[in-house]
Amino acid sequence: MIYAEYLKTDHWQSVRKQALERAGHRCTLCAGTTSLDVHHNSYFTLWHETPNDLTVLCRSCHGIHHAAVKQDFVVLDPPEPEYTETRIPRQVTEADFQQIKELWIKEQGVVLAAQAGKITEDQRAAQVAEIRDEIAFIRYEVIDG
Fold it and tell me: What are the structural domain ranges in the chain?
């Protein structure tokens, strides 16, 4: 079955609906609510997706993601959605998108370095967490803290 056909299956429609509900029908990056896509972080989990395998992105952010990360790269893990403080999504500017794009590319370098055995899994996890914190700082205003 080709991927386009997979996206038409009842299974995918159910998984997609659940992902959208978990994300509150908002883009994980910009909090937009229109033209939402459910992005696979890995195509190795088709038919067996877990919540961590999927990221909800608006069409614009999804396009930026694919422009920043080539399709044959290891794709991004989803952002960690649980915070101890209240965060309000910021209006993301073009400059913010560029910064986020550069951070996504940086994260891909970390993931690839770990896969090549150049850094340990603990180093990868720490570096990815730091990058995600930088992205969260761009994306959100922290209210309580």
Answer: 3-142
